[in-house]
């Protein structure tokens, strides 16, 4: 059975007027601004083609990350439309596409890795000692996570090779 | 090559119809179906009052100019009557087999919900399934149902004239048409106008290009205005005949166009011979 | 070989690469037939139809009005990649300034020469 396949865009909302502010954005706002951009760029045909599949799957209000879904046959139209977004809700904003994946899971995995890589940047922005300690702790825990993860994979590989060795002898 | 057909002319006004026919003939259509829309299938009222009278559309008188045009090009245009019934619920469908409805050449239903759509695909004896493509469909078009409908020789119709009229209609039409064509893989789709004015008509070659935007391939989209329409007409003919290969018509009821059959009838003395010829082969089979 | 056939010899050119341009012969008709079109307005109408149906990206393709005859027939040239789009946009175009109008496409071809005659219609001057 053929399945309707999608593409998921992981994008970051960037507000040109300063970064770390709590803004009240709804996923509907994102949807309509993307749709408007799509209509401007690709007209009625663009909307007609992607109407059934265009959807905001995930919106994080704190980190300003969104996952937008589009039909795979026409995902390039959506990709172009994402770059044409100028305004979300009532804020000036644009979208920076970080990753395009075939599943939401792939996007989530990428998002975690992306956040982990960007933790040191967060450290620079800290003002108080307390915050710095917090970030340091997080860094440490993420490193520990990674370490245990790599250890696990190592163990797995070792056991696998052992099994393979046994079977060989 | 099959002739081009427009199986949905929505207007009912005689003056407008004349205009529409003239334009359609100029554009190259050879089959034109005038639609009668039936908003509900309710039958007679309590006291025998007819709630909605169904009457055949009058044949459209062609203007002299159009006749002349046809004569020059050596073409013939045929007008077909068609009935489209809105299918809100699954009751009252017995009305579709009543003689006044069956008098129409083509039968179409427009299901508005899932149950009606299922009924139309699985059991109803109609030729065309129309979906209202100007709004978001309230149900999913399911592939098994569509496959069943295709197997039964029914066709799905895409109306393009709303797309000409309005921007939102255009978006919805494209969206729904794409959904439909992806489900039925471009098979058994017809594109017709549904026009109310002559200005909303488009030429057959324009439509075969438009089909590309609706997700059809180029041969499919050409068939959507020609071959598939012919298949619809043949299906309608077969529906009236039920399951048979030979139709019997009283010689007094023969249409003027078919009178030649009577003239070319063989003399009676020749008849027994032919029956013998037919009966011989099974006898041979029995011997061997 | 007689000298007669040599006289009628011609150069035959075959181009196997995909056609760079497509040509459309069309005319813009209004419902009342009361309006004249000049080439500037025609170009504007075409661009508007493209923007309506295919947006700014669709309208960014160059459409040239090669010729506009007095009878209202226009010859358009369009890059072949946006040919289907342009034709679709012309088909779906229905209104200009609130006036119902329609593009009647007479002929399309990948070579300009073949638009010189139309095998589908037989125009008799006395008829029209």
TrEMBL record, chain A:
Pfam families per the UniProt record, alphabetical: RNase_P_Rpp14 (PF01900)
Secreted as UniProt keyword: no
Keywords from the named record: Nucleus, rRNA processing, tRNA processing
GO molecular function list: ribonuclease P RNA binding
Single biological process term from Gene Ontology: tRNA 5'-leader removal
Source taxon at top rank: Eukaryota
GO cellular component, one term: ribonuclease P complex
InterPro entries cross-referenced by the UniProt entry: Pop5/Rpp14/Rnp2-like, RNase_P/MRP_POP5, Rnp2-like_sf
Subcellular location: Nucleus, Nucleolus
Function noted in UniProt: Component of ribonuclease P, a protein complex that generates mature tRNA molecules by cleaving their 5'-ends.
Family: Belongs to the eukaryotic/archaeal RNase P protein component 2 family.
Protein name: Ribonuclease P/MRP protein subunit POP5
Organism, scientific name: Littorina saxatilis
Record lineage: Eukaryota, Metazoa, Spiralia, Lophotrochozoa, Mollusca
From TrEMBL, chain B:
GO molecular function, one term: RNA binding
BP GO terms, sorted: tRNA processing
Cellular localization per UniProt: Nucleus
Segments of this protein annotated with the region Disordered: 265-288
Cellular component, GO annotation: nucleolar ribonuclease P complex
Keywords: tRNA processing
UniProt keyword annotation of Transferase present: no
Keyword Nucleus appears in the UniProt entry: no
Gene3D superfamilies, A to Z: Metal-dependent hydrolases
Family: Belongs to the eukaryotic/archaeal RNase P protein component 3 family.
Record-given protein name: Uncharacterized protein
Organism lineage: Eukaryota, Metazoa, Spiralia, Lophotrochozoa, Mollusca
TrEMBL record, chain C:
GO cellular component: multimeric ribonuclease P complex; nucleolus
Keyword vocabulary terms for this entry: tRNA processing
GO molecular function: ribonuclease P RNA binding
Gene3D superfamilies per record: Ribonuclease P, Pop5 subunit
Keyword tRNA processing belongs to the record: yes
Biological processes annotated in GO: tRNA 5'-leader removal
Family: Belongs to the eukaryotic/archaeal RNase P protein component 2 family.
Annotated protein name in UniProt: Uncharacterized protein
Source species: Littorina saxatilis
């Amino acid at each position: 059975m053929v399945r309707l396949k999608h593409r998921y865009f992981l994008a970051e909302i960037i507000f040109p007027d300063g970064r770390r502010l709590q803004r009240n954005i709804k996923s509907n706002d994102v949807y309509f601004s993307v749709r408007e951009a799509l209509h401007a760029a690709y007209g009625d045909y663009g909307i007609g083609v992607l109407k059934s599949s265009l959807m905001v799957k995930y919106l994080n209000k704190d980190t300003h990350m969104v996952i937008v879904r589009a039909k795979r046959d026409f995902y390039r139209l959506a990709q172009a439309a994402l770059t044409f977004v100028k305004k979300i809700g009532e804020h000036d904003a644009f979208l920076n596409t970080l990753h395009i994946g075939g599943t939401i899971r792939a996007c989530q995995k990428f998002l975690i890795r992306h956040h982990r890589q960007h933790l040191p940047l967060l450290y620079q922005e800290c003002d108080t000692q307390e915050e710095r300690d917090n970030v340091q702790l997080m860094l440490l825990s993420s490193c520990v996570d990674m370490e245990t993860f790599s250890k696990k994979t190592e163990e797995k590989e070792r056991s696998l090779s052992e099994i393979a060795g046994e079977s060989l002898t | 090559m099959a002739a081009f057909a427009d199986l949905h002319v929505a207007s009912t006004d005689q003056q407008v119809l004349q205009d529409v026919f003239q334009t359609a003939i100029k554009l190259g259509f050879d089959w034109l179906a005038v639609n009668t829309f039936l908003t509900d299938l309710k039958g007679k009222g309590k006291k025998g009052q007819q709630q909605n009278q169904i009457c055949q559309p009058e044949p459209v008188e062609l203007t002299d100019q159009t006749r002349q045009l046809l004569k020059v090009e050596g073409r013939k245009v045929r007008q077909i009557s068609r009935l489209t019934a809105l299918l809100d619920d699954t009751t009252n469908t017995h009305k579709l087999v009543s003689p006044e409805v069956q008098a129409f050449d083509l039968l179409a239903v427009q299901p508005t919900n899932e149950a009606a759509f299922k009924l139309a695909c699985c059991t109803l004896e109609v030729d065309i399934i129309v979906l209202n493509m100007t709004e978001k469909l309230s149900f999913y078009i399911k592939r098994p149902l569509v496959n069943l409908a295709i197997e039964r020789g029914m066709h799905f119709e895409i109306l393009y004239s709303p797309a000409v009229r309005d921007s939102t209609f255009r978006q919805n039409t494209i969206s729904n048409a794409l959904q439909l064509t992806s489900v039925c893989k471009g098979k058994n789709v017809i594109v017709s106008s549904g026009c109310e004015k002559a200005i909303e008509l488009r030429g057959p070659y324009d439509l075969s290009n438009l089909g590309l935007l609706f997700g059809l391939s180029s041969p499919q989209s050409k068939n959507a205005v020609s071959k598939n329409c012919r298949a619809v007409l043949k299906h309608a003919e077969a529906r009236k005949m039920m399951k048979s290969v030979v139709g019997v018509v009283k010689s007094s009821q023969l249409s003027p166009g078919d009178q030649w059959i009577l003239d070319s009838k063989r003399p009676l003395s020749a008849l027994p011979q032919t029956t013998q010829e037919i009966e011989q082969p099974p006898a041979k089979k029995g011997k061997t | 070989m007689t000298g007669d056939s040599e006289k009628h010899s011609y150069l035959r050119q075959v181009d196997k690469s995909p056609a760079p341009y497509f040509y459309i012969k069309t005319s813009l008709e209004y419902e009342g037939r009361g309006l004249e079109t000049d080439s500037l307005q025609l170009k504007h109408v075409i661009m508007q139809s493209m923007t309506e149906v295919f947006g700014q990206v669709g309208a960014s393709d160059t459409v040239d009005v090669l010729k506009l005859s007095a009878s209202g027939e226009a010859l358009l040239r369009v890059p072949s990649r946006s040919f289907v789009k342009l034709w679709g946009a012309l088909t779906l175009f229905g209104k200009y300034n609130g006036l119902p109008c329609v593009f009647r496409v007479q002929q399309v071809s990948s070579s300009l020469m073949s638009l010189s005659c139309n095998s589908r219609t037989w125009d008799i001057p006395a008829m029209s």
